[in-house]
């Protein structure tokens, strides 16, 4: 019989960000109260699973999301820079649809297929594929949880499903505290799953913002 290994990509919960800053990789952005509740519900979703390994992006919001999983399974949180948020030249500023009308930033928007304003999609996929392969090997025959961010998780999923990397950001299926599950038979990916353990905390069923 073949060996089944499962790698779960858990997106962090809601971040306290009253000013609406595109926080990217900036430090000191922590989970909101609701974000902590989301993390607890995500951890509960893994109950009964054979989780043997827990990794996280080094950013605070990801580590805080990993804590309830760590407590539930008695696992240390291992940090891996490859799970970090995508680089973005707009981080640190409030950014909205109105912002693109500012001529001063047009030089960053010339190529949405790369994208020209941040870390190339291909680079994100390369590091996510690398860490997933390493985690799969380490958790062989069991399950692992990797806490990351929306764009890296979405890029890993699109690559796994053989889809083009360029996409519309408003159509990403990677909500807060969601779980994207990659199931492998030996080294072969056999399925991609998606769940939203904290959906009841989304206001009026809406997708919550946040990177």
TrEMBL record:
TM region positions: none
Q: What molecular function does GO assign, one term? A: phosphatase activity
Task: Report the Pfam families cross-referenced here.
Answer: His_Phos_1
GO CC terms, sorted: cytoplasm
PANTHER family documented for this protein:
BROAD-SPECIFICITY PHOSPHATASE YOR283W-RELATED (PTHR48100), PHOSPHOGLYCERATE MUTASE (PTHR48100:SF51)
* Protein name in UniProt: Histidine phosphatase family protein
Q: Which species is the source of this protein?
A: Marinitenerispora sediminis
């Amino acid at each position: 019989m073949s060996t089944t290994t499962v790698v779960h990509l858990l997106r962090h919960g809601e971040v306290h960000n009253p000013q609406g800053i595109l926080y990217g990789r900036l430090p000191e952005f922590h989970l909101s109260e609701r974000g902590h509740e989301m993390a607890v519900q995500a951890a509960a979703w893994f109950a009964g699973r054979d989780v043997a390994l827990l990794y996280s992006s080094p950013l605070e919001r990801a580590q805080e999301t990993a804590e309830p999983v760590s407590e539930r399974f008695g696992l240390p949180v291992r940090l891996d820079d490859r799970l970090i948020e995508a680089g973005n030249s707009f981080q640190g500023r409030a950014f909205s649809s109105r912002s693109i009308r500012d001529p001063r930033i047009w030089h960053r928007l010339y190529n949405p297929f790369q994208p020209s304003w941040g870390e190339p999609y291909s680079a994100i996929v390369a590091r996510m594929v690398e860490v997933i392969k390493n985690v799969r090997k380490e958790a062989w025959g069991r399950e692992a949880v990797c806490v990351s961010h929306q764009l890296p998780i979405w890029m890993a999923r699109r690559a796994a499903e053989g889809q083009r990397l360029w996409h519309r950001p408003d159509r990403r299926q990677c909500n807060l505290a969601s779980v994207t599950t990659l199931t492998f038979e030996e080294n072969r990916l056999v399925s991609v799953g998606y769940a939203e353990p904290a959906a009841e905390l989304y206001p009026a069923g809406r997708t919550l913002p946040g990177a």
